[in-house]
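Bug report (template v2)

What were you trying to do?
Predict the complex of my protein with glutathione.

What happened?
Run completed; filing so the output is reviewed.

Input:
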Amino acid sequence: MAFVLYNAPQSTCSQRVRFVLNAKKLPFEEVKLDLLAGDQLKPDYLALNPNGVVPTLVHDGAVVIDSSVIVEYLDEVSPGPESFTPKEPAERAAMRALMRFIDEMPAAAVRVPTFNLAFLPRFAAMSEEEFASFAESKPLRKEFMLAMGRKGFSEKEMSTALDRLARTLVRMESAIGASGGPWLQGARPTLADVAVMPAIVRMADLGLDTMWKEKPSIARWFDAIRAHPAFKPTYYFGSLLSERFPHLKKLG
Ligand SMILES: N[C@@H](CCC(=O)N[C@@H](CS)C(=O)NCC(=O)O)C(=O)O
């Protein structure tokens, strides 16, 4: 099986896919896109992924886009050596419900502090016109960029995003409590754990790990995911924002 992964080291969505490929010990060719330079908006890449975002997986000529879809696809075409999908249909449904929640809540919310803290200096240096045409060029993220503007998200938008992240931790805590942990759905990690991993790692990278200092089950979950053999090869040097952007300010 030949896998080509178009991705970016620090992209949270890409990290989900790298984790599953590494856990399954599937060799893959990694094509690294420079998202700040706009590689994801070049015609050749848009022909693969019309959303103009990473990741994209090409597997023996089949193009698969969207990280949640890609990780489910990988678990279907290569169920071993470690499967991340429960056998029971009700458990599978619970996993997918968690994945939808994660895509809607933390995966979206974590972009707000990420952009304000790491990427803003680049946008602030643009003229109003440059920024408008930059936002216009993004098929999926035009409105997000315009809402942020060159000056970044407001304090109110930041606190809304942080509240959504706090509510995610509460949801994780209750899933871990109900399943007995240490993972969201019990003794084994599922794709729901993989889906939420990059948001939690990003929060820690931004200094927001203080948000779970009173939540031992989240701390245990975080230790468990970092101890997974796929974690280290996924988070190679340059995958954390703090490794790439020395100016990064911490929130916590
Ligand atoms: N739902 C998509 C979202 C992909 C996405 O937002 N990717 C970000 C990086 S994590 C990206 O490529 N951003 C580039 C841009 O906004 O221009 C997925 O999970 O694959």
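What did the reviewer find?
The mean pLDDT is 95. The first strand starts at residue 3 and ends at 7.
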